[in-house]
Amino acid sequence: MRTYLEFALKKFQNKMVYRLDFFMGMINTLITIAVYLCIYKALYGNASVIDGVTYKMVATNFVIALGLSQAFTFNEMFMQDKIKDGSITNEFLKPVSFKLRMLSENIGEGLFKVVFHFFPALILTCLYTDICMPKSFANLVFMLLSMMLGYLVLWLISFIVQTWSFWLFSVWGIVTIKNVFINILSGSLLPLWFMPRPLKTMISCTPFESIYFTPVRIYLGQLSGMDIFKAMMIQCGWILVLYLTGNIFWKQGVKKLVVQGG
Amino acid sequence: MEHMIEVSHVKRYYKVAKREQGMGNSIRHLFKRKYEIKRAVDDVSFTIKKGEIVGFIGPNGAGKSTTVKMLSGILYPDDGSVKIDGFIPYKQRKQYVKNIGVVFGQKSQLNWDLPLIESFELMRYIYKIPMDLYEENLHQFTELLDMEDFLYQPVRQLSLGQRMRGDIVAALLHSPKIVFFDEPTIGLDVVAKEKIRNFIRYMNQKNDTTIIFTTHDMQDIEKICERLIIIDSGKKIYDGSIQDIKNRYTSIKNIKLILEDGRKEMRTYDTSKKPMNQIMEEIFRENQVKDISICETEIDEIIRDIYEGSSRILSSEL
Known about the structure:
heterodimer, A: mainly alpha, about 75% helix, B: alpha/beta, 2 domains, about 30% strand
């Protein structure tokens, strides 16, 4: 456990090395928030409620989704790069699990972004516009828990796509397409409240809803009691399915590497 | 003495897509591929005792790296077996790799953006090295390899020689029983090479570390290894001491001539075929010799001779 914590910390340190990148990331987050809030404001015009959703809720959804997506971005070319230059073999020479190591480095990177890009932006946003407070302290706790599950869902989707680099020359294109899907279908760009009903039903059958939207709804108190529990069980279900799928790809890929040679 | 490494009848084949030239063939290739079997390692066996330093050489593409990969557990052999320190590397990888260290001259495992010392720290956690052992090793290694000056510099700012030293230390901090070096002196200057060689020898003597070493630099072999395994086209063609191989070549002499008219000539003779006085007689009869020097064959030449397959001497005795 300590080993993996160390991987995360090293990645965290890594991210602090480049000063310009550090400050630009912060500014970038601020601008993104400002632009989107203006767009939503314009869309709402003088109306205070659209489809039963207030501007405040939309703003909250957006800010939380942004925070999560900051925490949830990581280097998705990690595996491809390692496979391409052959340094993945180096990883097999270490007595650590590659998957856990990758996960902990990604968490380190996400943590960095939350602490140094998102928190400052959040504080400034709170001064500029008001966003909803969590429904209750319990909701906040459940939201954090559900957020971690959401992270795993997102990570595992990325992991599956990344394992394809064992067979494909480049996974960049697929990663990009995957991210577009996630942006639209997970509600991070446009809250899922505004989606047409058939699309909404369809999305609820995919893992995408579990990523951002479940934590946001818990935070806002749209889910309560048993519903929270149910939503989290769905998240866990997706984690299991995605983990098993990813594992099949990973095992086959490693086999290809050790059996056929890199 | 027990055998640390036992390799018996190991084979490793690769399927290589075979392509023919021309547009027509390119299109055909899209639908139907022809494969060719390349025998990277073809029935190689050897054993290595604890504490031995073995130089593993062979021309490019001979199967050295493939063998090292099988020994370090990242490649399955197609046939035959490998047993190292009681482990079957490719089957018990996670347990096994705790006992080995691997240095690839061409691939760094250091963290590019952070100071060298941070990468060492990470190794401490990866291998769960006890603090006192870590500190002792780190202190000793950095002193021996003269690294105090750049321990706190980011790796990306280091020179190749400094980085290589860093990589070596990173691979040895956990005091592994077996160390694989894959061309550790590639691209380094004479001083850096010498430092690394001394260090490897020291590690071997002090901790009785078993060391396997691949290189293209014969100086490395001559200065570090007692034993030499030569492999070519996937087959082992020599296994024995360096002194032995040199002795077999003692009858081969290089004669450098400087003639009266200033021309320089280099000739090779085999004294077991033609006695020296006859050779000399011929030389003096045919040339106006101003200066002459007779040299033993260098290890470089011996190896070249073996690679080129003109080695009558070796093949007759193996």
